Amino acid sequence: MLRNSVLPNNYTFPFVLKSSSDFMEFKQGQAIHTHVVKFGHFNDIYVQNSLLNLYASCHDMDRCRKVFDEMTQRDVVSWTVLIMGYRSVKMYDDALISFEQMQYAGVEPNRVTMVNALAACASFGAAEMGVLIHDSIRRKGLEVDVVLGTALIDMYGKCGRIEQGLNLFQGMKEKNVFTWNAVIKGLALAKSGHEAVLWFNKMKQEGFKPDEVTLVSVLCACGHSGLVDVGQEIFSSMIHGKYGFSPGKNHYACMIDLFARAGYIENAFKLINEMPFEPTKTMWGSLLAGCRDQRSFEFSEFVAKKLLELEPDNSAYYIMLSNLYAEMGRWSDVERVRESMKGRGLKKDLGSSYVEPEPQELLAQ
Questions:
Q1: How would you class 127 by CB atoms within 10 Å of its CB: exposed for 0-12, middle for 13-18, buried for 19 or more?
Q2: How many CA atoms lie within 13 A of 247 on its CB side?
Q3: Could you report the per-residue pLDDT of 48-99, keeping only the tens digit for each?
């Protein structure tokens, strides 16, 4: 176009910038940004919104914010893109501050804005803000469709208010697998294993097919409530193809956690040895927590060494192994571990945590 001496206009740039955004072509987008300024179209709000989307899609929120601050006029799309961008890079506090600033500026949020703000509330644990958004939806008489309803349920579940989420769920006309997942995940986070299994069974009875996320949630719930037999039955069904997919790393992590919590240490080791994946830090961590609860020092030592193999420069693992040897009265081994730390130039870090004892982070996603 430029080679043929045809100048782009304010209708051209949004299409070209969207292409760069979709493919996360950051450098190409920057070059287009230069042309926007060169040809005098920076003050067009549609072009500016496209630039915001480019930088947000490429996770460069500094440039996104700079473009936003330079805008003389902002509409609901401008604010929504900014909030979505902050949420995508896990800057949840900035996303929620922007949502508040949007309302102070007199710009009315739309459904997309509210869904993203609710997602930020869910991830940040901002229950009060989430409730305010829900109250605003009710005041405006907005229909709680499947997308908005699922976002609200997810927020209530992750903020520890699953009962409010269940009330909302039961009043919804339309539901999909994501809605059911939000409920089951919320119950798992609340450590209500029996209820989570109950809703899991209801989901199947109503003709919804569980997906990978559903199974992670229900297996985690079983682990928290000691439902070993139920968890084993569900996991066995996965292995035999009942749900149309094989267990992934996250499902194995949940089962190892379930066995470890229940004191089934040998079952957990057996599963680790048989699974088609290399064990992760979370898996070994769950197993270590179970071994220590059972006062199984030999197994604890084995697992602690596995963790050291994964992260040989993590001082917390050396301290944990040293403490373990101290409990066993093996003082020469305590001294050996301390010398090994010195040899690596490692120091005791009081603020460090040696392990994530459960796959809880899987439920927060």
A1: middle
A2: 27
A3: 999 999 999 999 999 999 999 999 999 999 999 999 999 999 999 999 999 9
